[in-house]
Amino acid sequence: RKERETAETLEALRVELANSTMSGDEQLQASEKRRKDWEDELAKLTAELAELKAEMERQEREAAEALEALRMELANSAMSGDEQLQASERGRKDFEAELAKLKAELAELKA
Predict the structure, then answer these.
(1) Structure confidence at residue 23 (pLDDT)
(2) pLDDT tens by residue, 17-45
(3) What is the full DSSP assignment across 31-66?
């Protein structure tokens, strides 16, 4: 009877040990799965971050190019304004010279 109880106890311990080992294996597998999931999530987030960074750099580059284009346009329009002012000044001087010539001719005709 004692041997049978000991055998039953021993068998119960073996079953419990097997169950706890499987539970440990399952826990290890679950832990490995979580680690893999976290690594996958980290890789996904890292890729998204890289895409966002590239997009931000592209937008910054486009903004810098647009700003440079505006600066050049402003510089060109300022030069055009200067050129227009110079042309207007030349036109005025030419007009004044022509007017002076006509006045001289008129004075000669009157004399």
Answers:
(1) 65
(2) 777 766 667 777 878 888 999 999 999 99
(3) HHHHHHHHHHHHHHHHHHHHHHHHHHHHHHHHHHHH
Cα(61)–Cα(46) distance, integer angstroms: 22
Q: What gap in Å lies between CA 22 and CA 14, rounded to an integer?
A: 12
Q: Please state whether the predicted TM-score (pTM) of the whole model is above 0.70.
A: no
Give exposure, 34-67, as e/b (b: 16+ Cβ within 10 Å): eeeeeeeeeeeeeeeeeeeeeeeeeeeeeeeeee
3-state secondary structure of 102: helix
Cα(52)–Cα(7) distance, integer angstroms: 66
Q: Which two tokens stand for residue 48?
A: 């998204």
Which CA distances in Å does 28 have to 13, 14, 19, 35, 39?
22, 20, 14, 10, 16
